[in-house]
Design brief:
Helices cover 15% and strands 48% of the residues. It is of the alpha+beta class. It has two domains: 30 residues; 209 residues. The longest helix has 29 residues. The protein starts with a helix and ends in a 9-residue tail after the last strand. 30% of the residues are buried.
Length: 244
């Protein structure tokens, strides 16, 4: 009987040890212990995409509010867009050391009305729509979040000095690739990331005349900055219904 009892106690001890170890991993992720962002891959386990994670490491849902400010270099003006949403999931990459968390999601942003001055003296307005063309790919590693966005910029309802321009429905830029980074505690936290990018040329602008050169000349080019505030709404098993 003594021998059986000792075995039972040992069995309980092993079970509790495993349970506490699992909790420690989850808590470490939640408080950002050893987490960060860097798009560069690390050993073999880091190359496993979120969609290919094993069944015992399922993705965890996560949702953020997104507020952005873009500084358009050629115009010298700011474009504020938001609030939008980033709805996605994250996984802890098995075996990663330091701990690596991969976050993917769908980015949606509302159209924004902009005002700027062209040629240094002529006021202009337009509605700008940023359309995400691929899922946002982010990596949290060593306390830094690095996010890569693929998007196009659409222009509608443009007026120059109050005179409407017949833009047509398909005036938009080529795809831009924007990489942003900044301090981030964990996938269940709020933070600000930023980066610089190039606005590509515009195409299919104008119905009665080709306005591509006009908008490419006014807007497109390098040195633009994007600042994004990601506000954590909910994640894990918590419901997001109140945040929708």
């Amino acid at each position: 009987m003594g021998s059986v009892r000792r075995q039972a106690i040992l069995g309980d001890g092993e079970f509790m040890a495993k349970r506490w170890w699992a909790l420690a991993v989850l808590i470490g992720c939640a408080i950002g212990a050893g987490t960060s962002a860097n798009a560069a891959p690390t050993p073999a386990a880091d190359n496993v995409p979120a969609s290919a994670q094993p069944a015992d490491n399922p993705p965890t849902p996560v949702h953020y509010r997104v507020d952005t400010t873009t500084r358009v270099a050629k115009l010298g003006s700011d474009l504020v867009i938001g609030p939008g949403r980033l709805d996605g999931q994250f996984v802890i990459v098995p075996g990663s050391n330091p701990l690596r968390v991969e976050i993917t999601g769908a980015l949606t942003l509302p159209p924004a009305d902009s005002y700027f001055v062209t040629f240094g003296f002529m006021p202009a307005t337009a509605t700008i729509t940023v359309v995400s063309t691929a899922p946002v790919q982010s990596v949290l590693l060593n306390g830094t979040l690095t996010a890569t966005i693929h998007a196009t910029f659409g222009l509608t309802s443009a007026k120059v000095h109050g005179v409407p321009l017949n833009m047509g429905p398909n005036c938009r830029s080529d795809e831009a690739v924007i990489v942003q980074s900044g301090p981030f505690l964990s996938p269940l936290s709020t933070g600000t990331i930023s980066g610089t990018f190039t606005i590509p040329p515009f195409h299919h602008c104008g119905v009665t005349e080709n306005l591509d050169p006009l908008f490419t000349g006014l807007v497109s080019g390098p040195g633009n900055t994007l600042r994004t505030v990601l506000t954590f709404l909910c994640g894990g098993t918590a419901t997001c219904e109140a945040a929708r």
